[in-house]
């Protein structure tokens, strides 16, 4: 059969397209109301989202940032109780976190509250506040888990403390904060007799962060671990 015979004729193609359009028109006609509702629903959804963001959330974020700034001033003055609970004029971190929970500043208030409680020696509350703090930031993700680890260590739960130190050093490769917690994790693991884990922390500290001040004693720590491991053989 020749190529000409197998190819559809132009008028047949036009006819097929016409039939397709007719079917589409019939479908639309039959389903005019549901389609209209779907389109209106999509438009309403977009309108609601942009209205929520630009008319509600953005102004709320600015309010929260202003209140957080005032609370931070109390932190800078070492007035941690005032920072947490407010000073009668400005809101405290706890109120900011609750009142502006949908904002980034409200979430950050949780972090500052956790730090304040740790410094005040209220370790269970420090853990509770940090557990509610959410972040993907490579620095804050390490610091938050480090605060929880410090709090667990202070209340005599070294197993949980090491678990959170481990989470802290795995949360990021940040060269400023990770070495600090690698050193802490290594020393705590060594203290618990977990020499293999301790060696792993110190080796990472030495190899991955050689310029960190916390890596200055890494060789000394590793030598001590090797000596302890040799004694066990």
Q: Which features characterize this protein?
A:
Serine Threonine Protein Phosphatase 5, Tetratricopeptide repeat; 77% helix; disordered N terminus; 233 residues; globular
| SSE order, one letter for each helix or strand | HHHHHHHHHHHH
The percent of residues in helical segments reads over 70%
The named CATH superfamily of the largest domain:
Tetratricopeptide repeat domain
Mean pLDDT, as a whole number? Answer: 83
Here the CATH topology of the largest domain equals Serine Threonine Protein Phosphatase 5, Tetratricopeptide repeat
Number of domains: 2
Radius of gyration, in Å, reads 30 Å
Overall SS class: mainly alpha
Protein described:
There is one protein chain. The chain has 233 residues and is mainly α. It has two domains: 58-134, no CATH class; 139-233, Alpha Horseshoe (Serine Threonine Protein Phosphatase 5, Tetratricopeptide repeat). Helix content is 77%, strand content 0%. It has twelve helices and no strands. It starts with a helix and ends with a helix.
């Amino acid at each position: 059969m020749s190529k000409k015979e197998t190819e559809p004729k132009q008028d047949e193609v036009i006819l097929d397209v016409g039939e397709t359009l007719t079917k589409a028109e019939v479908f639309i006609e039959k389903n005019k109301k549901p389609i209209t509702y779907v389109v209106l629903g999509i438009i309403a959804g977009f309108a609601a989202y942009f209205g929520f963001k630009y008319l509600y959330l953005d102004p709320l974020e600015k309010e929260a940032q202003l209140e957080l700034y005032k609370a931070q001033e109390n932190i800078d003055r070492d007035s941690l109780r005032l920072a947490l609970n407010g000073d009668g004029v400005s809101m405290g971190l706890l109120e900011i976190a609750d009142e502006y929970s949908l904002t980034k500043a409200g979430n950050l208030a949780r972090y500052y509250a956790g730090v304040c409680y740790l410094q005040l020696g209220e370790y269970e509350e420090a853990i509770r506040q940090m557990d509610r703090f959410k972040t993907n930031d490579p620095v804050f993700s390490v610091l938050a888990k480090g605060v929880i680890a410090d709090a667990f260590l202070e209340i005599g739960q070294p197993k949980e403390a090491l678990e959170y130190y481990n989470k802290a050093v795995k949360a990021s490769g940040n060269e400023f904060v990770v070495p600090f917690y690698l050193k802490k994790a290594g020393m705590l693991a060594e203290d618990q007799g977990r020499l293999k884990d301790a060696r792993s922390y110190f080796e990472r500290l030495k190899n991955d962060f050689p310029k960190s001040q916390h890596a200055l004693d890494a060789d000394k720590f590793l030598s001590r671990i090797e000596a302890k491991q040799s004694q066990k053989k």
